[in-house]
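This part of the workshop introduces the protein records we will be handling. A record pairs a protein's sequence with a compact description of its fold. Comparing a sequence with its tokens is the quickest way to learn the format. The record below serves as our worked example for the rest of this section:
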Amino acid sequence: MDNNFMIKQIGVICADENGFRIQLAPEYKDSLIGLDGFSYINILWWFSGCDNEKERSVLSEAKPYTKGPDTLGIFATRSPQRPNPIALSCAYVTYIDANNGIVGLAYIDADDQSPVLDIKPYTPSLDRVEEPEVPAWCKHWPYNVETSGEFDWESEFNF
């Protein structure tokens, strides 16, 4: 099961005084054709700050959430420490500047200059689960992305 994969960075996350956006590499700007009209996108990006042997070897976390169990396997968390530091964020699109390869975002939980790997349109027919089940320790979390910005996430994490 030891396969090698080649991943190409298509752009970067910009999180600065001008807000949040994706800046695509010039050769990928035509990839934005037809994206207008989608209000949300799924963004695959790289937790570049955790791309080292130590962080990639973390398989479990001691009490990462204040109301969670004492230990969780890394696949039961949204921690950036993972065997492959790949992140997935769903973000609201505020504008698309296809000429300059820019996608404006209302918010994304990524650091400035985080590498972007892929963008996919959010489509309810494939991405929405009508009645998802979650463990009791996180049932009080917001039920959708629209209200999660108002939630006190700082009081939920121990990292």
Q: What stands out?
A: The chain has one domain: 11-124+132-155.
